[in-house]
Design goal:
37% helix; 4 helices; Aspartate Aminotransferase, domain 1; six-stranded antiparallel beta sheet; alpha+beta; 119 residues
Length: 119
Amino acid sequence: MTPQELRAFCLSFNATVEDFPFNPQTSVFKVLGKLFALTNLDAAPLTVNLKCDPEDAVRLRGEHPGLVVPGYHMNKRHWNTVTADGALPDRLVRELIEDSYDLVVAGLPRAERLRLDRA
């Protein structure tokens, strides 16, 4: 997955914006103000921090050692850092991004979730 593909995929979700609250290099993708992906698109290797169900997070780390690791500078129980430079199948990286988005949306208040459904 290229940095441009990663950025485009993250922005393809409903009500998603890209923000730079930390520095000009760190892209933060948010849905209704809530973070679901964080990356430096210029980094090599390309990695992305993604929210993950705690049980799935541990399983993924075991299945993909070195490529899926506890979230860098994040709550290690709920976040993974995923290498997105082609070492993992792009399909898996897209699924993990979508799962992160879905987890964040599930935690939004009901009125906001309903507003997302009416796009």
